[in-house]
Each structure stands twice: as structure tokens, then as C-alpha cells.
Specification:
By secondary structure, the protein is α+β, with helices and mostly antiparallel strands. The chain folds into 4 domains: about 180 residues, Beta Polymerase, domain 2 (2-Layer Sandwich), CATH 3.30.460; about 170 residues, Orthogonal Bundle (Poly(a)-polymerase, middle domain), CATH 1.10.1410; about 130 residues, no CATH class; about 90 residues, no CATH class. About 35% of the residues lie in helices and about 15% in strands. The protein is built from 23 helices and 19 strands. A 5-stranded mixed β-sheet has the order 3-4-7-6-5, with helices on both faces. A 5-stranded antiparallel β-sheet has the order 8-12-13-11-17. A 3-stranded antiparallel β-sheet has the order 14-16-15, with helices on one face. The termini are far apart. About 35% of the residues are buried. The N terminus is likely disordered. This is U3 small nucleolar RNA-associated protein 22. Belongs to the NRAP family. Its main location: nucleus. InterPro entries: NOL6/Upt22, Nrap_D1, Nrap_D2, Nrap_D3, Nrap_D4.
């Protein structure tokens, strides 16, 4: 099922690698009429904050956060030299993979991916790249300068196109493509290390999206060089799309030998390296930015907004960069979001949606519509963008294996692949809050674009840390052929989503993206990347849904529900799940969480997470492995346990709010009986609690005090809060004369 972004609008727009000339101009003249999709409700959406002041503020913000391209002239000088060097690297002979590895290691070059454990018959040959192109936000001119850096820093993506002769038709199977890709990158590393560039530039490996099967080379000026700017050029490899049959890379195909199940993530990873597809996307955005002047600035606004919420680059100068899992290419994802709002869905018979002249020319208006679309997006649905002409999209059903899908204009790529569903929900929740602010009619610019807290933990309600070892990765991925950290994190995020359900509105995983040397050290017998530490530190942040977060029961399906849902619930929870009948007569599978007092109830989330990590996923029950601060400071604000019996008649933690509410209800009855006893002239119709102690919202649970020894109690415990309430009397025209 496709979700429409809004009502269909103009006719006549066609696509081919992007945008063709349309039969009607996208940007109308000053006398043009609003298109059909721009009804009153849509126009009214951006009226409250679309005044001159808001537009000025937005314009100032984009200017302040845009990269000053004139400061990166040294890269403009460097790029043609680098391109000439890469295209001129000598070819190698066709040799077995083992021979290639030994040759590279003999030259002091490390291969960024370990070779297959079992011997292989296929061979490798290096042929110089076909072409090197600048792609991404640098070329589109919609890059932003991160607010986490004191000085502007540019990340520039260079697409290095591997030629057809490097690959064979069957290389898409069982990681063969990725191993050849790694050897090809190592040959480029060898050339760079022995070039004249090595004296002026630093080289390192890192991994695209944190995937160890997709290494890239980072090039940056040395710190003591004469470079006047800070930038990192990333060499990203691509292959000619014609080498692999597209049908074999559909999400439903199984291309890993260890399993007969579909391998959608693996297939998408290969497809996303296609030269033709990457250039199609780049051409699509380039032409869209030409036809719609607001496109680039809107993309910048979206990046700034997201960076200042939680989806930001956290580190400043630390080489071990931190990124949210799934959002390493957030700028690329944002470009498609903005394009989708402009161009609409691929529903059969649906016209292209062009949101009128105002959306094409006003970045503030277009940005608000992107926020509005995000706020209404069901992140667990399948959404299809308008398909480019001459593309060959996969059938809609191919994407059913994904938990979430936003399908690109080629119809082949799921843009949400690798992004945890919980993190997508977090993005939508942030958009909902922003949309509410925008509709308030107030001056909300400061609230919408407030500067972020650079502490990941402070951005969430709950935060905990997990240290993941290589043994943990092997255990989590025991059913997977690719036992990698990225796969382990995907398994962990799926389990988090199942365990927490509607208790959270979203969650995010923050991990390190370390860089490693290109050089091979002889004391390492394998070409494995040197681990920066024994553990990978993963931070997890949760945003709670207060309506469900502290429920004592996790409800599952009833016995007459779908057998698949029932089996899934019971398999996940195991012996924690049992069948129960509830007061309304319903019978459901459920999980009961035991608590002994209200404070423990506030820690149900902690109880669930510890059960998931320690009992189900078998992490060590050690504070150095699974660590959090949930409830850790309760002891500092609670009364001394040795003084409880001297201060209270009953322990407040044990009786909770039950006792005070019982007293309040009795007090209410006595007040209402005053009229009956003739003590007051008007009857009391209602007694409304005002005190936080009577509304279950106080930090401390109130308890019955011992007044006998009150003078001898410690001074710090003598405070007696007043429990205020409001009385409402009956109305009477005779009052007070008839009293």
C-alpha cells in the first residue's frame, strides 16, 4: 500500500534520470493560478509562521550553516590531480585471491576485509577506474557545516567507477563482489601510499554505514600542511550495473549460500553500489534543484533541523566518530524526502504532485510541508516515490520483507534499509512536535531550531550503554552468514522494538565509526581490521510513551488471533509469556512484570531491557557490560531506611498512593455530609485534588506520619506537605439572603 503525500496536482511532468522539460513550467509566473493540490487547508498550514520575520530567520540560518565553498580552493586544485592519478594506476595480472593478498601485504598494504575462510577458485584482476565523479551534497551545493565543529569541515564523496572487466556475472553471490571490491580498494591504497600525495595527505580506511563489507578510503590534508581548510574526501567504489542481472538482486532473492531465505539487506547493499544508479540519483537531484530553486535550501534546513534534534554528528575532533546507526547517510535520505514531497507517489494513474509556485520558490514553506509529511508518515508502511522514466522498478510486493520501506525513484532501492524502525519513529515523533509548534501561530523559530545538547544521554528519557565483544557478535549472528557488528546491531534493534513495543515512541543507537590504517603490519597474520578496543561501545537512548511505559502487563495476541502473531509472541517471550483471562472477559497471551512498590514500577523499562539483554540475548550480567543510570540516584533522595519505622506508621513505598487516596475519599465524603448535618448553607458538589500528592504525580509517596515522637525526629524529616484541594459549591440564586 502506498501513502499519498497529498492530493494530485499538475499534469505533464516526466522523468528521465531526473527531470525532463515539462509541458507546464514548475515555477509559474506571478500571474499563475494555484494548482489543484493547493487547497485552502494546505495554504493555511504555513500561514502562522510564514511571515516576513520567519522567512528572514530561515534565510539567515541557511546562510550561517552553509559551507563557504570559496574556502576549499585547495580541494579544487587537488581533485584533478587525484583523478589523473587514479585513472592512471597500472593494471595487474589475473591471479588467485590468495596471491593478490600476499602481494599486497608484501607491499605493506592492508586489505580492509578478511578473505573467505574456505579456499576459492575465482580470481582477481585490477584494472584502472573507468571514471571518478564528485557526487553528494558537495556537488549539489546543499551541504551544511556541522554545529559540533568549531571550524567548517567539508565531507566530499568521490564515486570511483570500477570497470566491467573486474567482475563476473556470478559475483553477486556469497560475498564474492565484496571481496573483489576490498582487493580493488587495497590496490588503490597501494598506489596512494607510494604516490607523491603521501607526504601532504593522510589516508585511512573507514566503513560506509558502519558495514565492514563496504570499506572506503578517507583522504584529508595533514594537520601540519599548508592547507587553508579542513575537508575529507571519501573514495566510494561503484560497479557497472550491466554486470549483474537486476532480477537476481531483487529483495526476495536468496544470494547467500548458507541459507535459502531471501537476503534483502545484502541485495540492497550491492544495488546501492551501482554506478548507473548513483549517477541517476545525482542527475535527478541536480535537475530538481535547477527546476525548483527552493530544493537545496530546504534540504539544508532539514539537515540543520535534524542535527539540532538528535540526528547529528556528535564528535568534534575525535577520530573515532560517533553516528546514529542507520543515519550515516542522513543527507542523502533527506534529499529524497524533500523530492518526495515535491513530486509525489507512484500510485497507478496518479499525477505528479507539484505543490504550487510557493513550494518551488519558498524554502520555509517547502520545509514545513516536509515536516508535515514526516509527522503523518507511518514508518512501518511501504511508500513509493514517483518513478523515473526509463527505470525498471521491482514489483511493489518485493519490498514486503522490509519492516519499513520508502522506495526511491528508480523503484529498486529501499531508502530505509539499515535504519531501525524505532529510530524512524523517533524522527517522526520529532516532526510531530515541530509541526505542533508551527501550527501554534507564535514565534517558534527559536524552539524549532534550538541548539542541540551534545550529550547523547540528555536527549532521551532513558539511556543505557552496552559493550559488545566479538563473542557477543558471534552469538547474536549465529544464524547469519555475515557475522558482523552491523548485523548484530540490526538484530538488537529488532529485539528492542519487540520487547518495548508501545512503551516507547522511539529509540536510537549510537556507535563508534573508527578509522584504521591502510598499512599492513607484519605482526598480524590476518588482514583483519585492527580493533580500536576490545569492545564496541553502543549507547541506546529511549523516548518513553508515558501512557504505556509503566504498564505492569505486556499484552499479546488472543488465542484466536493469527497463528503467526501468536507464535511470534510466544517464541520471543518464551517462558515469560502465559495465557490469562482479564476482567473484561478477554483472554490473551501476556507478560507480567512484578513490582513491590511505586518506585520499582518506574523502573519497569529497566527490568524489560535487562531481561532482554541478559536473559534472552545472553550478555554478561556485569555492570561493565550492561550499564545504566535508571534508578541509581533514588537512594540519595529517599529517607534513610533505618529511620522509616520511626517516621511513618507504615512504609510509604510499600503502601504507595493507596493510603493517601483512601484518606482523601473519606475526607470528601465528610465534606459533602456537612450540608446534610446543617453545618453549611450550600452543598458541596465536587472536591478536586490540586496537590501533586493526590494526583499520583509527586516525587515522593506520601505516608502516614508518627506524631507521637515528632519533636524528636531529625529536622530534615519534619516537613509536612499541605495536600490542597478545590471545593465546588452548588449554585443558588437565594444565596446569601435565604441563608
Amino acid at each position: 500500500m502506498s501513502i499519498a503525500a497529498s492530493k494530485p496536482a499538475q499534469n505533464g511532468l516526466k522523468f528521465s534520470y531526473g527531470l525532463k522539460e515539462s509541458s507546464q513550467p514548475i515555477v509559474g509566473d506571478e500571474n499563475s493560478e494555484p494548482v489543484d493540490g493547493m487547497d485552502d487547508a494546505l495554504l493555511g498550514y504555513h500561514m502562522p509562521t510564514s511571515g516576513f520575520k520567519f522567512r528572514q530567520q530561515v534565510s539567515s540560518l541557511t546562510q550561517a550553516t552553509s559551507l563557504a565553498y570559496s574556502k576549499f580552493q585547495d580541494f579544487e586544485v587537488f581533485f584533478p590531480l587525484l583523478k589523473e592519478h587514479l585513472l592512471g594506476i597500472p593494471s595487474s595480472e589475473l591471479v588467485p585471491l590468495e596471491t593478490s593478498r600476499k602481494s599486497l601485504q608484501k607491499c605493506g598494504v592492508r586489505i580492509p576485509l578478511s578473505d573467505p575462510i574456505d579456499p576459492v577458485q575465482w580470481k582477481f584482476v585490477f584494472i584502472p577506474p573507468k571514471e571518478v565523479d564528485i557526487v553528494g551534497s558537495w556537488s549539489l551545493k546543499n551541504a551544511i557545516s556541522s554545529t559540533s565543529r568549531k571550524k567548517q569541515h567539508a565531507t566530499i564523496d568521490l564515486l570511483v567507477q570500477m570497470p566491467l572487466g573486474v567482475f563476473q556475472e556470478k559475483d553477486y553471490m556469497s560475498n564474492r563482489y565484496f571481496h573483489k571490491r576490498a582487493h580493488y580498494l587495497a590496490h588503490i591504497s597501494k598506489s596512494l601510499l607510494h604516490s607523491s600525495f603521501s607526504d601532504k595527505f593522510e589516508f585511512s580506511y573507514s566503513y560506509l554505514e558502519g558495514d565492514c563489507f563496504k570499506p572506503i578510503i578517507n583522504i584529508r590534508p595533514q594537520k601540519d600542511s599548508d592547507s587553508t581548510s579542513k575537508w575529507t574526501a571519501r573514495l566510494i567504489l561503484s560497479y557497472p550495473q550491466s554486470v549483474f542481472p537486476l532480477a537476481k538482486l531483487a529483495p526476495s532473492k536468496a544470494n547467500l549460500k548458507s541459507t535459502s531465505h531471501p537476503s534483502p539487506d545484502y541485495n540492497q547493499s550491492i544495488l546501492m553500489d551501482s554506478s548507473e544508479l548513483n549517477l541517476q540519483h545525482h542527475s535527478f537531484f541536480t535537475q530538481l534543484s535547477t527546476k525548483s530553486p527552493a530544493f537545496n535550501q530546504t534540504c539544508q534546513l532539514m539537515k540543520v533541523w535534524a542535527e539540532r534534534k538528535v540526528f547529528y554528528r556528535q564528535s568534534k575532533s575525535n577520530p573515532d566518530d560517533h553516528r546514529l546507526v542507520g543515519f550515516s547517510r542522513f543527507g542523502w535520505f533527506v534529499n529524497f524526502l524533500v523530492a518526495h514531497v515535491l513530486l509525489g507517489n507512484r500510485e497507478v494513474g496518479q499525477k505528479a504532485k507539484i505543490g504550487g509556485t510557493i513550494l518551488q520558490t519558498d524554502p520555509a514553506a517547502l520545509w514545513k510541508h516536509v515536516i508535515d509529511w514526516l509527522s503523518k508518515w507511518n514508518s512501518e508502511s511501504i511508500v513509493c516515490m514517483k518513478v523515473m522514466e526509463d527505470s525498471h522498478p521491482f514489483p511493489h510486493e518485493e519490498f514486503n520483507s522490509f519492516g519499513s520501506a520508502l522506495i526511491d525513484p528508480s523503484g529498486m532501492i529501499n531508502l530505509t534499509t539499515g535504519i531501525p524502525v524505532g529510530t524512524l519513529k523517533l524522527l517522526c515523533t520529532a516532526a510531530q512536535r515541530t509541526a505542533s509548534l508551527l501550527k501554534s501561530g507564535n514565534d517558534v523559530f527559536g524552539a524549532v531550531f534550538s541548539r542541540p545538547s551534545y550529550s547523547f544521554a540528555s536527549s532521551f528519557d532513558y539511556h543505557f550503554v552496552v559493550r559488545i565483544s566479538s563473542e557477543d557478535i558471534e552469538r547474536l549472528c549465529h544464524e547469519e552468514e555475515r557475522k558482523t557488528l552491523l548485523n548484530a546491531l540490526q538484530i538488537l534493534s529488532r529485539n528492542l522494538q519487540l520487547a518495548l513495543g508501545n512503551r516507547v515512541t522511539g529509540f536510537a543507537l549510537l556507535r563508534q565509526l573508527p578509522e584504521t590504517s591502510l598499512k599492513f603490519y607484519k605482526n598480524r597474520s590476518k588482514s583483519l581490521p585492527p580493533a580500536p578496543s576490545e569492545f564496541t561501545v553502543l549507547q541506546v537512548g529511549l523516548v518513553l510513551d508515558s501512557a504505556h511505559a509503566f504498564n505492569l502487563v505486556t499484552y499479546g495476541p488472543s488465542p484466536d488471533s493469527s497463528p503467526v502473531e501468536l507464535e511470534k509472541f510466544c517464541k520471543f517471550w518464551g517462558d515469560r509469556s502465559d495465557l490469562r483471562r482479564f476482567q473484561d472477559g478477554s483472554i490473551k497471551q501476556c507478560v507480567n512484570w512484578e513490582v513491590h512498590n511505586p518506585l520499582e514500577r518506574m523502573q519497569i523499562i529497566k527490568q524489560i531491557i535487562r531481561w532482554l539483554l541478559i536473559r534472552k540475548l545472553n550478555f554478561k550480567d556485569d555492570q561493565s557490560v550492561v550499564w545504566d543510570l535508571i534508578g541509581h540516584f533514588d537512594d540519595f533522595i529517599q529517607e534513610n531506611s533505618t529511620q522509616i519505622t520511626k517516621i511513618y506508621e507504615k512504609n510509604p513505598i510499600e503502601i504507595g498512593f493507596t493510603n493517601v487516596m483512601k484518606v482523601f475519599n473519606e475526607f470528601t465524603k465528610e465534606l459533602k455530609a456537612l450540608k446534610e448535618n446543617g453545618l453549611i448553607p450550600l452543598s458541596i458538589t465536587s472536591v478536586q485534588p490540586e496537590s501533586e500528592y493526590l494526583r499520583y504525580s509527586s516525587v515522593f509517596v506520601p505516608g502516614p506520619r508518627r506524631l507521637k515522637n515528632y519533636p524528636h525526629q531529625p529536622t530534615t524529616t519534619k516537613y509536612l506537605p499541605s495536600l490542597l484541594c478545590q471545593l465546588k459549591f452548588e449554585s443558588s440564586g437565594k444565596w446569601p439572603r435565604a441563608a
